[in-house]
Specification:
Elements: E1 4-9, H1 19-23, E2 34-39, H2 45-51, E3 57-61, H3 78-84, E4 88-91, H4 94-99, H5 104-116, E5 120-125, H6 129-133, H7 137-148, E6 158-162, H8 176-194, H9 196-200, E7 202-206, H10 211-218, E8 225-228, H11 235-247
Helix pairs in contact: 5-7, 7-8, 10-11
The protein binds phosphoenolpyruvate.
Length: about 250
């Protein structure tokens, strides 16, 4: 039985004052069957982990470097995230793939660095609109999944997030059939490669999840939760998404 996961990605949003939103999520996060995660900007991680103390909210980073240390100005290692209080890290978000040229091999190396530091890697996959419209979605997802997921992935150290690039921050959401097709495809690929661990890995849907569409998305086969951007910035919205997931 896979535990569900409501994960928020604050992206490059939030300063100390915004931690009041995190405080206001603590009661809603006190659920029986759902894990809750907020990935804050790196400078907020240590304060966020203090704010979340005593609650069911885990804190994560949004990226880490593949190397343990060295001459990489501005980068953050997995060990530094752990030291600041993180338990998870997002790897391969499409904004990192596009803005920073991250390849599948780089995403796999970052995920391996996460494992080496006992962080859970939330590995993101997703097709562009052009790839969707030209019928390449499953090929793209299959290639990203194979190339971005290290051989050492397990049900405990890895979460997969399917995020169609064209649905992120746009208000556009795939049909439930399209979500099911991709999630079932990812599950089959994970089970074939990792056996029972592949069956146990959680697969999140991400892309314009809101309180108004959460319930129907969470009812789709092999959707084990959500990775939420904009709607994770406000406690009222994210709390409603947690509740939708906890009853689904
Ligand atoms: C995301 O940042 O991963 C995301 C899915 O964003 P949004 O929910 O705003 O589309």
């Amino acid at each position: 039985m896979r535990r569900k996961l409501a994960a928020g990605n604050w992206k490059m949003n939030g300063v100390t004052a915004n931690l009041s939103e995190l405080s206001n999520m603590k009661d809603a996060a006190d659920t029986k069957q759902t894990d809750v995660l907020i990935c804050t900007p790196a400078p907020l991680i240590s304060r966020a982990s203090v704010t979340a103390e005593g609650s069911n909210i885990a804190i994560g980073g949004q990226d880490c470097h593949a190397n343990a240390s060295g001459a990489h100005t501005g980068d953050i290692s997995a060990e530094m995230l752990v030291d600041a209080g993180a338990d998870y890290v997002i790897t391969g978000h499409s904004e990192r793939r596009v803005d920073h040229g991250e390849t599948d091999a780089i995403v796999a190396a970052k995920s391996s660095s996460a494992y080496a530091n006992d962080l859970v890697a939330v590995i993101c996959l997703g097709e562009s609109l052009q790839e969707r419209e030209s019928g390449q979605t499953l090929d793209v997802i299959g290639t990203q999944l194979a190339g971005s997921t290290p051989d050492a992935a397990t049900a405990d150290n890895t979460v997969i997030a399917y995020e169609p690039v064209w649905a992120i921050g746009t208000g556009k959401v795939p049909t439930l059939e399209q979500i099911a097709e991709v999630h079932d495809f990812i599950r089959a690929g994970l089970t074939e490669r990792f056996g029972d661990d592949g069956d146990g890995m959680r697969i999140l849907y991400g892309g314009s999840v809101k309180p108004s569409n959460a319930t129907e998305i969470f009812a789709v086969s092999n959707v084990d939760g959500a990775l939420v951007g904009g709607a994770s910035l406000k406690a009222d919205d994210f709390n409603a998404i947690i509740s939708a997931l906890d009853v689904s």
